[in-house]
Specification:
Helix 6 crosses helix 7. 36% of the residues are buried. 33% of the residues lie in helices and 20% in strands. By secondary structure, the protein is α/β, with parallel strands linked by helices.
Length: 213
């Protein structure tokens, strides 16, 4: 896979993720790539993420959408590549949790507010033990089934309060390593340059465009 000449289906139903992927492609000079969503193709799929790793879950989603597109009579099916990611927040004081269960952590929290739930869970944990990281793995499946994966990590810590109005998920409580700001206080361009998903996507774009953008 040397040049991104094919349309890419983003294998996600998460509107925030879809927006971030579009912004990242644009920011890193790959705005000519045609990105499509499941809704654009009139398909619906929510594969069960049963793997025990980010790579495994990303692969489950990528392969499920790839198989659906090629088996559902979607127009231009043979052109589409499929991109899927899985990511999570790993808090050292919680033994690396919630990790691959980060989405479920939000869903099970009161008001689906995982950030608030995390602050309550860490209320008695001192600053020096609040280290954490965001971790993402992206899987890209070509139209012929070939696969590549890309990984990104963003180190930081969990703050003592929510700050900022940008981003989503745990962004309001995640403080960047070497910075006083929380992820939700960054501009979109700053976030995509530093975040776990942004770092993984930068690798993908370089690998698939020979660095030409």
């Amino acid at each position: 896979m040397s040049v991104i000449a094919n349309p890419i289906l983003i294998a996600s139903n998460n509107a925030h993720k879809l927006q971030e992927f579009r912004e990242i492609f644009r920011q890193f000079q790959a705005s000519n790539v045609e990105l499509v969503t499941p809704r654009d193709l009139g398909i619906a799929l929510d594969p069960e993420e049963t793997a025990d790793s980010y790579l495994g879950n990303a692969r489950i989603k990528a392969r499920a959408f790839h198989n659906l597109v090629h088996g559902a009579g979607v127009a231009r099916a043979n052109d589409f590549w499929v991109l899927a990611d899985d990511s999570g927040l790993e808090v050292d004081a919680l033994g690396g949790a919630p990790g691959i269960r980060s989405a479920r952590y939000h869903q099970s929290a009161p008001g689906h507010d995982g950030s608030a739930a995390l602050l309550r869970e860490l209320a008695d944990i001192p600053e020096e033990r609040r280290t954490a990281r965001f971790h993402a793995v992206i899987v890209l499946v070509a139209s012929d089934g070939r696969e590549q994966s890309f990984e990104g990590v963003c180190e930081g810590a969990i703050g003592f309060e929510k700050r900022g109005s940008g981003g989503f998920g745990f962004d309001p409580v995640f403080r960047l390593a070497g910075d006083t700001r929380h992820m939700a206080e960054l501009t979109a361009d700053e976030k995509h340059r530093l975040s776990h998903r942004g770092r993984a996507m930068q690798q993908l774009i370089i690998a698939c465009t020979d660095g030409k953008g």
